[in-house]
Write a structure and sequence with these properties.
- Three copies of one chain form a homotrimer.
- The first copy, chain A, has 445 residues and is of the alpha+beta class.
- Chain A has helices at 5-12, 19-24, 157-160, 180-187, 190-195, 294-301, 316-320, 334-343, 366-383, 412-419, 423-440, and strands spanning 28-33, 52-56, 59-65, 71-75, 89-90, 95-96, 103-104, 110-112, 130-131, 133-136, 139-143, 155-156, 164-168, 174-175, 221-225, 229-237, 243-252, 256-259, 265-273, 276-286, 400-401, 406-411.
- In chain A, β15 (221-225) and β16 form a beta hairpin.
- The first copy, chain A, is globular.
- Chains A and B meet through β5 of A and α5 and α8 of B.
Chain lengths: 445, 445, 445
């Protein structure tokens, strides 16, 4: 069943009131990294600024931190006469517009209107748009939906785990040409991992996942719906004979991917607007015998561009260029590859939307159809006033969330046992693993 | 009564045939400063060029000066086959198109068509769009309206006054995001003067104008219609006890502001098109005892950016940036403040128009409603074929115009006497003052 | 009969399915110069790249050269999921997409889909858009039309002639504001040659072509339809008394101009899209006594910008600027003049289309009406399924094509004999001249 442009476009808008925009507004989303935002008890980091201007889901917003240290997210344009609050001044408990001095607190209440009579109650009649924020693990998250639908903040172990080293990305990965569903297509695509991120670099890893070549069994692949979104699982050939690589990757709604050993990494690809995306990433490395592992230390000292350390100019894809430009240091990195893979699907004349009707989906594209089916279900749920997948509302469920993503070398039988587990069985198994670690030594969670 | 976007937008277009465009085309408007335009008996100023390309009220025009020294303003595109006359050559009495050599004189007459037979009368059938110009006080003004409605050129004393020092701005203040009515909103807004241009810099001047604090009387404010547009008058607390500051600021139609001591300054904010504005300014300092005052000399030697000396890049607001950028030399200047106040009200997705429906107008915004009422009256007048406010057509009225703007320190009683005068009484009073100066010493006018 | 904007615009679109787009797609068009494209047996030229991205007639395409050395032209976006093949890798017999490794050969066949099962026939169901290429005289030509209408490649002597020196331009002349019919207007315009390229520089050559001044006869001009498009012929006054200059210039369909002595030069102005144009040029200088002529050697050593050596930035017209900028080295060159003549007819607010309804066509604009009449005929022919002018389909006609353009000094009688020849008579005469050269000495063809 080929994709239809009209249906796809309807599904790709992210603004207020659009079908997908309403789904996206039922979740907490990162909007900035903590160290970019000054204020509070002082700027811990040089270069921090207060306020900041951010654009999220097509909305222009101003982010500031008052003297309490708490971040606040307001509509950028003053409710008085529309001047940008980005050029305003942050004071102890408010941000104040330059034009006539209207001041707003973190909840968008108007706390001063100096040009009005002192006894005027006019300011009580105005509510400036504001969104609640949560700051955790070096990221500032916000909830942009209706207040009465605000869910609990999800306690992913990458954000809340203890006894480990946490590496938070710098938020510098911005894709100027990317729509959010093509990012989810990419998450649920084991083939591009093999081909784009492997084979192309000379490593013949595509054969490790393929179709019975070299006497190896055809790689089993399964797709599942999960309590948080979707996953794929593969059991592919390993580097040594008789060894296999069990890989499980999760798409966590609305825009996250969770992968790597121990589900170490969570990445958010947050729509800036209909055609651009900003990435945030947190990796969590549990301590080994109470100390950071060598792998963890190596990760934080690696200067090459990654989700954690990207600093991208608007035209970096053009600068890095095409295949002939092999010498460029970013040319063969995973970010470059994903930027090309996803970021060139759009076409300028279609406002950076792809021309989906020209796609030819094959057996390896099951994830593309699967994610659309799941996403449309969420659109329907939200239309009916229900919560979409993965939203936590009951305080009894407010537990540490271990997405059971993993990557581990096993023999065939052990691998197939893992492969045959349902997402719920895997979740229980991983929860038990983390609990065991807690009991048996330095508490990783 | 909240503003409505649809009505506001209709009022904010400036092109030919639009309601406000037709009002704007009933007045003389500055289109360039004299020293930017070469030609005539030689280029007096290095950097002068001939012709120049200017965009005024949404029209692309070419400005040149022939050997007579007179400026001329024509449509940019040749009436033959549309090639830009900006790349043409200025000759003794014409500008000649590069493509086929058609030549136009200052009145838009076709004076040569070298590719046509010598006896051809074809050129007599073509009239190229041209607009009359007046050059005065270092500015080139043009009238872009219907010839049969052309009024007299208004003899503002800032332009025509004698026995004084005249400082003409360099025309370098260009706002890329500004619609003309939000400039008029800004003129008739005493509060932003106190808050944006005062209080924000640390000077607690807001209390000088407020609501009975510190035992001072509540500042009286009045708005009036005038023979030239509108004005506000305030009598605010002064720096010393018992002293008050009488301030009278005028909006002079269509796009001028007149303020400061002795109505010293006149500024034109001329719409380039629907979303950008170019400023021109002339200040006139009467001689004191036949010589320039210290204030006048200080003004012409002040190197800081002002309306007179602005040179703005397209992205200067971004460069100067927000509140955290206190160290920038332009950060606390009045131009920066007005650029933020007015220039960020628009939204890119609305073609730089504000989202007026999200404004919340309060008691301090009387000027916003007042200017709209007055402007709509002018739209109606022009629709009925009448002249709008301030247009002078009768030669008997072709006198020096003293707009009675002022800023003066007085005691309460003297201030209230000034305050209670009508615009007409103030006009008579100021005319008498200028006449007295003429009689009693060095003639200032 | 004035031009109408609506009709003109319809005629100026170049995309697939538009009236003129379909005409343009019946001819071979140059799309790149050979030395810009690497690949094959190695990159002969530093700076050559493989693949290249090109935009032709509004289509985004990728051009590559596989190990055979043959160029190939494919749609830029992968038929699988739309990723740009510009970032793919050229292999021995294909270009391979970075995302999932789909590989396409020169004919657009899918030759590998590594993520599909080895026995899958899925790839046989997909045909990627591709266009046939011919590489000749340092240019890569492509045919973008329906395969069943593909004509023979025309054997212009500038491309295929032997015993001569061939100078191929660098393809660097790109006009950002130019629609293709205003280029054809320009070809068939003897007057602008006199005025824009002559008189403006101070040479009073306009009188050599005019209306009986100086006792000279009025210059005769004729326009003709030809087997390849259209031509004009003039017999204008020469530099010496009694000597005349016979000039014959051809518009060769769809977008070529052929002019200069011996029809030496052929230039293609290929629409990039509706509002920009890229030029390609080949000049052919027959050997004189078996050696390059002094004129030929001088041409290839001339460093000044020309069609052959243009390297243009997007804003070069702005940089070179207007008439006052006499000192600029490009200011008085023919490219600059044509760029102004043609490139400023468009208006930004009209997507760079001219406002044709404001044109005033005179007797000297016969070419403008003539080219429209001819072009509309081709639109009709193509609508009826016939070949447009100049298309060669019969192998019996696959001969060297000598467009009889020329520029030669003659006396009046000889000139008028030439002038009175029909295009067919001129073609026969020129064919005989080239054959004679072949027989009488070093074979020029």
């Amino acid at each position: 069943m080929p994709l239809r442009n009209e249906e796809e476009e309807e599904l790709h808008h992210v603004g207020p009131g659009t079908p997908s925009g309403e789904v996206l507004r039922r979740y907490w989303l990162p909007v900035e990294i903590s160290e970019n935002l000054g204020g509070g008890r002082g700027n811990a980091f040089s270069g921090a600024r207060n306020p900041l201007r951010v654009r999220v889901l097509g909305e222009d917003l101003v982010l500031f931190r008052d003297a309490s240290g708490e971040p606040a997210l307001l509509a950028e344009h003053c409710s008085h006469r529309g001047t940008s609050l980005y050029y305003g001044r942050v004071e102890d408990d408010c941000i104040r517009c330059l034009y006539h001095g209207w001041a707003y607190d973190r909840e968008g209440r108007v706390v001063d209107t100096p040009a009005e009579p002192p006894d005027s109650n006019f300011k009580l009649t105005v509510k400036h748009p504001s969104y609640p924020c949560v700051e955790v693990a070096g990221l500032i998250f916000a909830y942009l939906g209706a207040p009465e639908r605000q869910p609990l903040f999800p306690r992913y172990h990458q954000l809340f785990g203890e006894n480990g080293l946490r590496v938070t990305g710098n938020g510098g990965r911005i894709q100027r040409s990317n729509v959010f569903l093509q990012t989810l297509d990419n998450v649920l695509d084991p083939w591009h991992s093999e081909i784009s991120h492997g084979w192309y670099k000379g490593t013949p890893v595509v054969t490790t996942m393929h179709h019975g070549r070299n006497g190896e069994p055809t790689t089993p692949i399964r797709y599942d719906r999960t309590p948080w979104g979707a996953r794929y699982v593969v059991l592919q050939s390993g580097e040594r004979p008789g060894k296999y690589s069990y890989r499980e990757t999760h798409a966590v709604f609305p825009v996250q991917r969770c992968n790597l050993t121990d589900g170490r990494s969570m990445k958010w690809s947050v729509p800036i607007d209909d055609h651009s995306t900003r990435w945030f990433a947190v990796d969590f490395y549990p301590f080994v015998e109470g100390k950071p592992s060598r792998e963890a230390l190596s990760a934080i000292n690696d200067p090459s561009p990654s989700d954690a350390r990207a600093v991208m100019s608007d035209d970096w894809v053009e600068q890095v260029g095409a295949w002939w430009n092999l010498g460029h240091p970013w040319r063969q990195g995973q970010i470059w590859e994903d930027e090309i893979d996803m970021g060139t699907q759009g076409r300028p004349e279609r406002n950076n939307f792809p021309d989906w009707e020209k796609w030819h989906l094959a057996t390896s594209d099951r994830g593309v159809m699967f994610i659309r089916q799941l996403w449309r279900e969420q659109v329907e749920r939200v239309r009916r006033g229900e919560d979409p997948l993965g939203v936590i509302r009951d305080p009894a469920n407010d537990l540490l969330v271990h997405i059971p993503a993993d990557r581990v070398t096993v023999d065939w039988e052990a691998g197939m046992r893992l492969f045959n587990l349902s997402p719920e069985e895997r979740a229980a198994m991983v929860a038990e693993q983390w609990a065991t670690r807690s009991r048996s030594g330095p508490v990783p969670v």
